[in-house]
Amino acid sequence: MSHAVPTGRRSSFGTLFPRVSPGAKFVPPLRGVAVVRGHWSATLGTRTKACQGWGTRRFLYPTLATGNKNVARMGHPARVNLHSTRFIQLSMSLNLFSPLKLRSVEFSNRIGVSPMCQYSSEDGFATDWHLVHLGARAQGGAGLVIVEASAVTPEGRISDGDLGIYKDEHIAQLKRIVDFIHSQGARAGIQLAHAGRKASMSVPFGGERLLKPEEGGWQTVGPSAVAFSPTYSVPQALDQAGIDATVWAFGAAAKRAVEAGFDVVEIHAAHGYLLHEFLSPLANQRTDAYGGSLENRMRLPLEVVERVRAVWPEHLPLFVRISATDWAEGGWNADESVELARQLKERGVDLVDCSSGGQVPNATIPVGPGFQVQFAERIRREAGIATAAVGLITEAAQANEIVAEGKADLVLLAREMLRDPYWAVHAAAALGEAASWPKQYLRAAPHKSPARGAV
Ligand SMILES: Cc1cc2nc3c(=O)[nH]c(=O)nc-3n(C[C@H](O)[C@H](O)[C@H](O)COP(=O)(O)O)c2cc1C
């Protein structure tokens, strides 16, 4: 998504581009794209080295992630002299620090904290751990903080330490967290989840294993009586009443999310949990209306989306996280994800969060920096819906490029946010962007950083 900016006009982001004509000199925008046609010469970065060219040349700014605007332009013209140039076009790409608006909600930047289970709850209740953990990342400047997978039923918890949103008593603690996130200028999201056949596990800190009945373990459910692996329990295939109750539970959880003040609800349909299990032939072997064809396998996730959209306020955005592929023969694949994304869009979903895997333990996953970005890019292009990219995104320049090159609208980080809760303000410094800081911390912030305001 880049916006062509006529020269001499104010762009939608408020930057005034110079009017340029043959014989003129101009300084390209700090971020965006400049296309020069004709005969030009240029001064590069802080070096006074000149270069010249003839024909069409495209320059993308910034090219390097540094706090120094001139260095950021190194290798690309800091100043361009137009000789017999006939035409010049400047367009301003969005970048990581461009605001994002979905429905009525404006996010101050395109950095989100990906949902991360903390296994720190009892009976689904949020604790001080959640307040501090999520609050610190809001202080750190992320535009969106998504609360971890929150179970819509007690049986939908991965473990007995999972967060839940299955009873009204959960709302007050969640509201406290949302209010703090808002005080830090960030938007608050919550992921609504049902773990399906991967439920009833111990918290992973002492080694993950199936909970025994005497430890409080419970009967898991899924599309079919097929276990995830020999160390997991065999789920009970949901009957129609169980399916209806699941749809209802997601809707009831979404209503509680409204009460708690969340700005975003994300439905978890990824990582081999219940809704993803229905999508994938590797877990779904049903022969009724919920299994077999793609249309049938998508039925439950789409019913859940319709139910949530019906109770989630019209002015608030709805996300769905998917595993874009199972990375396994005979499993859910990227073509099906594109079709699912189209169906989600028709039902009022605003953004597809593109993860992958988790359906089978023996998947072959080509893990590497940004390895899932391709799915966010393809779904965005082919389904025409906003996407989030996630997975091994750790560097400011890497995240910036994903947005600037139109591969995704939002970038989510998980483990890097655990290593550095202040990743967003550090990324701003690296990219030469001004980011707001909590007023209490301004004395440690880069010179002239604005104080953070609440949303
Ligand atoms: C501790 C931890 C807990 C996680 N819990 C969730 C979760 O609740 N919901 C979810 O969709 N993904 C969860 N994930 C996956 C992350 O959201 C993210 O998709 C994944 O870690 C890849 O991003 P990264 O490379 O930035 O870590 C979790 C990851 C970690 C490390």
Describe, in plain words, how this protein is organized in 3D.
The radius of gyration is 24 Å and the shape is globular. Helix 3 crosses helix 4 (240-260), helix 6 (294-311) runs parallel beside helix 7 and helix 7 packs across helix 8. The two termini are 26 Å apart. The protein folds into two domains: 2-93, no CATH class; 100-444, Alpha-Beta Barrel (TIM Barrel), CATH 3.20.20. It is an alpha/beta fold. The model is unreliable at 1-22, 26-30, 44-48, 62-78 and 84-90 (pLDDT under 50). It has helices at residues 69-72, 128-139, 171-183, 240-260, 274-279, 294-311, 334-346, 373-383, 396-404, 415-419, 423-431, and strands at residues 2-5, 25-26, 32-44, 50-61, 77-82, 87-93, 100-102, 105-107, 111-113, 144-151, 163-164, 187-193, 221-222, 236-237, 264-269, 318-323, 351-355, 386-390, 410-413. The protein binds flavin mononucleotide. The site of flavin mononucleotide has 20 residues, from strand 10 and helix 10.
Q: How large is the count of helical segments?
A: 11
User: Radius of gyration, Cα only, in angstroms?
Assistant: 24 Å
CATH architecture of the largest domain: Alpha-Beta Barrel
CATH superfamily of the largest domain: Aldolase class I
Q: What's a quick, concise take on this entry?
A:
With 455 residues, the chain is α/β, with parallel strands linked by helices. It has helices at 69-72, 128-139, 171-183, 240-260, 274-279, 294-311, 334-346, 373-383, 396-404, 415-419, 423-431; strands at 2-5, 25-26, 32-44, 50-61, 77-82, 87-93, 100-102, 105-107, 111-113, 144-151, 163-164, 187-193, 221-222, 236-237, 264-269, 318-323, 351-355, 386-390, 410-413.
